[in-house]
Structures are given as structure tokens and as C-alpha cells.
Predict the structure.
Amino acid sequence: MSTVASQIPATGTLSAPGSRAARARWVVIALIPAVLAAALLGLTTGAVEVSPAEVLWVLTGHLDDPFLREVILNLRLPRVLVAITVGAALAVSGVALQGLFRNPLADPGLIGVSAGAALGAVSVIVLGTTVLAPLVMALGVFTLPLAAFAGGLGTTWLVYRLASHGGHTSVATLLLGGIAINAIAGAATGMLVYMADDQQLRTLTFWNMGSLAHAGWTLWAVSAGLVLLALACMPLVARALNGLMLGESVATHLGFPVHRIKTLVVVMAALAVGASVAIAGIIGFVGLVVPHLLRLTIGPDHRYLLPASALGGALLLLLADALARIIVAPAELPIGLLTSLLGGPFFLWLLLRQKGRFGSTTPD
Amino acid sequence: MNTQALAKVSNLVVERGGRRLLDQAGLEIRPGSVHVLVGPNGAGKSTLLSVMAGDLRPSSGEVTWCGQTLDQWCPHALARCRAVLPQDTVVTFPLTAWEVAEMGRLPHRTPERDARIVREALDRAGVWHLSGRDYRSLSGGERQRVQMARVLAQVHDTGPDQPGLLLLDEPTSALDVRHQLRLMELLRVDAARGRTILVVLHDLNLAAAYADHITVLKDGKVVASGTPAQVMRAETITHAWGVECLVERDSLTGCPWVRMRYGLGRATAHREHAA
């Protein structure tokens, strides 16, 4: 034992070579102005050219041009707010579900949570005037987000029961279960669409592709409230999700009430996904791409990854929305199509990379 | 020495699928001692450790630590003084070795001291130089030592006045000879600091050389328990494992030295061939 000299360098500094906490803090802080800048970009982009200065004047009430006020406050500001809400919700629920399943490939869209939420929402849209009328009467503006929440909760629970056995998650079952649930929920949604009338149909088609356009202020406020509630749970689960990265029993040995945490994470993720589906429809891959890119830079510590993902998701969706309006201007591309267009290849690249890692015998 | 810091297991019965994995098993681990659990495959060593770790509920019997049963302990307080090293830990996220070891500090709220404690733990486990490496890219032995560092960081605040318990399931299984010895030396140091240590081992000579107390499990029952000199006897080993061996005494340390009679089958075959 005495022959083994201490390997700590004799410098007096308290360096921590494998710790990325300091960098992670800076990334979180740097993302805040980035989101604000992207929001400003979102307010200036579109068919009508508006300068950033004009945007700021209108927002602060110093410019009283009724046309610009209409464009900025009633057309673009809601979009920007919806993009922030939905982006943050999807990215955070992605992180939460990946922590729960202990797998970085879990995404609310891929594993069927979004489809379940969509089924809940479509049921309310189509059956709200007939079978579900008493429910709509009772819940009012909360009906749509709560129905989406219920759908999301049901599917999350189902996928979890399918893929997890004794603390271990089978990735294959997780993704295959996701395919099955997507198919079932999609078919059920399709049947409801078949029953829908013309008016409902127009709402549905646009909404199935994901859109930031058709959100009213009330629906946005209710959904944003639910998303905020989910985000408020983040600090409660961040440390436990860190422990869960080493497995359920290790997390238990570290003193975390694992079962309570898991329930909270499922509810929190379903709440965030349900709320975002209720206002913007199905927007895929945000929950996969954002956490993955952030983990590469700041590591998987959930104390930083959760807030960074909330900001990163908002940033990504703001930029994607600006892009969706620029590519085919003066029309716009449904945002869900765009994220799938970008996220699909990203997912394939991720799979190829994983295959490479598992296939090779030499560690990198 | 704190005699209160006693870990005690009594009359443990665990049944799974109609099989008795543990049958009235009991043992006592004294504070400041290294207690080694040995036994053939399927004897119930890991099961006993799982029950002590709180992962598995026994059908009957109980586990007490510092005079309180596991159920009476607040999980959070328990996590600050008791650490568990599982046989293997699979990580699917890109954690560095440092970040894995740092997990041991999760039950504590001591951010100002954590960096120093994690550094010391990594150094003691001999993996300080791997701090910045991706845990998933490490070899089996390196991972095991990083996990050991995590465990050391978790119980860092325990000592002679503050009871600490380590439950280690085959911590040497992936280690080379030098690191096996280093780890056992490390456990002796920790025991001298007043920690209570239970280790599952397969190497009988490692157990004989470093244990204060050895318990032999077979078919879920305790078949022998005592000091290395009391337990490491040829008839005990033959009874438990069904192998022939000689037990000698190391001339330098005085520890029992188990010499397996390897190649017996081959010698018989050779004799038969000659005849």
C-alpha cells in the first residue's frame, strides 16, 4: 500500500477534472438571453417586415401604430409565447421520461405519450358537443388540456408497465411499445376524425401536424399554467433523477423515495405533454434532440439539464417557428412537419452512432 | 469504540418461487470490523446482502443497525451512514467517473466540502486519474473501483463517533491481484476508523488474510461463523464447497492459508491410465 503514491497532483487548487457543473451553470445562464433574442426574432419575422426597434416600442407601448400593434401583439406574440411554452414543456418531459426509463432515446412522441394526449384532446373536440358534453360543461376551458393530460398519463403508465421490469427498462420493448401505442392511438384518433364534421375537421388536420398558430389566449393561459406546475416540480426530482441514473436500487440506497419520485415524474411529464398537445398538437423530437445536445455539452446532471432543456426547448421551437414562416413565406409550414423533418434524421444518426458503440470492442 | 453501531441480522427467511433462499440465517457485524461472507454459488450471499440493503423484504426475521430495524430508520438518515456496493452498475448516460463518485454525496447537503471528499474517495479507490473519463468507456475493474469511490464518498462523514456501515457485494470480482489487495487494505483502514463492514468474497485466502470474522453460507443456512482460524478448516471447506483442500498457516502472517487440491481428477485419470 505504501508503494502506491498518491495520484493527486500536489498543486493546491481544488480542481475537479470530471466535473462539468461550472460549465453547466454558464450554459444555463447563457441560454436566457439566447431565448430572448430568438423571441425577438420570432416577433420580427413574417410577411410584414418589422424591425426589432419597432417591436420593442410596440411592446413597451411607445408606438401606437394600430396595424403594427395588431401584427405584433395579436398575431406574433401569442405564437412566440406558445413556442416557448410548448418547447420548454416537451424538452423537460423528454428529460424526465429519459431519466425515468434510464434511456436517452425516450421521447414523448416516440413512445406514444403525445399520441395518447392527442387522442384525449381529439375525443373532446369531436365528442365535446355530444357524448362528452357534460364533461365540457363541468370543466370549461380546462377540458381540452385535462383530456390531453389524461390521455398522456394513461399512455405513459402503459408504456412504463410494458417496458419496465424490476427496475430495468428494455429499450426494445419501450420503442416497440411506442410503435404499438402510436398505432392504436392513431387509429382511434382516425376513427374520431372520420366522425368529425367539416368545422371540426379543419381544426383537426392542422392540429395533427402540430401548429403554433391556432392558440387562443385562454387556452394558452390554462396550458401555460399546467406547464408551469410541471416545471415547478423540477427541483423536487432533479437530485433523485441523478441517483436513478445508477439504477433504482442505488437510488434507494442513496435515500430517495424512488416509487414516489417515479409517480411524480410520470404525472409531471404527462402534464407537460398534455398541455402542449392541447395548444399545439403533436410536435415530435423536441424532447429527444434538445436533451441529447445539451448532455453532450453540460453532462447529464439533472440539476442543470432540466432548466437548460426548458430554455433549449423554447429556443429550438422559436427558431424552428421562424424558419417555418421563412421557408414558404408568405405561407407557413406546420411546425410538427418541420421538427419531424429535422428530428427524424437526427434520431437515425443517434441510432447509427449507438450501433457503432455497441458493435466496437475497443472503448473510445 | 461505539458498541451501539452493531449490525445484526436474525432468523432471516427469504422465499422466492417456493425455494428457500435464506433459511434462518443470522449474523452480527461488530463496529470497526471487517466481516466476510463466503459460500458457494447460490448459497444466498447476495440475497442476504440485498435484505440488509433494504432491497428485498424477508419473509420473516429482521435486520437491525444501531439498535433500530431498517423500517424504523429514516431512509435519508440511513443513506448518510450506510452505503451499498452492488455487483454491477449499468449506466446508460454519459457520466464521467467523477460524476459517478459524486453521486455518493447526494444524501448530504455539504456542497462546500463535496469536491474535496470526492477527490479523496477517487484517490483512495485508485481511480483519481480516471476522473474525466466517460464511465461507460472504463474497464470492468475500473468501473468497480469508481463505484467503490462512490461508496467511500457516501460514508465519508462517518467514523469512530458516527456509525458507518458498508455493504459490499463482491467488490474484488473484476480486480487484478494488486487491486484486490489494495481494496482489502483500504477496508482494514476503514474498519480501524470505526466503520462496520460486510463484504461478500469468493477468494478464501483473501478472506482469511483480511477478515476479523468469516461467515460461511450454504443453501441459505449459516454453516460456520467465527474468526478465520476457527472457520478456515479443511472439513468446513469440503463440506460447504465439496472440494478437497489443505489448510496451512502462512509462516509470516500466521493467517490460515487454504491450498486447493487442484488437478485431483487429472491425477486419478493418469493413475487409471497407467494401471
Q: What stands out?
A: Residues 1-13, 357-364 of chain A have pLDDT under 50 and may be disordered. Strands of chain A lie at 164-165, 168-169.
